[in-house]
From TrEMBL:
Protein name (record): Uncharacterized protein
Length: 86
């Protein structure tokens, strides 16, 4: 499903999506094709559900967005790893 379709189905709502197809470009992650997991009225509940899904299925990409956003893009953070005491 494309973002424009999600916006038409769930206007002015919070949605949790699973990325089916995505790509990275210049530090941004773009979701090209997605599946709707759940719709929410509240951003906190959407974030909570998204975090639970990510913990239970870490190999999948889950995000939550408000459908008023013009596009689905995520700023990527570089993983620095865990530093231990030497």
């Amino acid at each position: 499903m494309k973002w424009s379709e999600v916006q038409n189905l769930y206007p002015n709502e919070w949605v949790v999506i699973e990325a089916i197809q995505a790509h990275s470009e210049e530090g941004l992650r773009f979701v090209d094709d997605m599946a709707i997991v759940q719709q929410f009225d509240d951003s906190f509940e959407a974030m909570k559900q998204c975090n639970e899904l990510q913990r239970s299925r870490p190999s999948n990409e889950f995000y939550f967005f408000h459908t008023s956003r013009p596009r689905v893009e995520i700023r990527e953070r570089r993983w620095l790893g865990i530093r231990g005491r030497g």
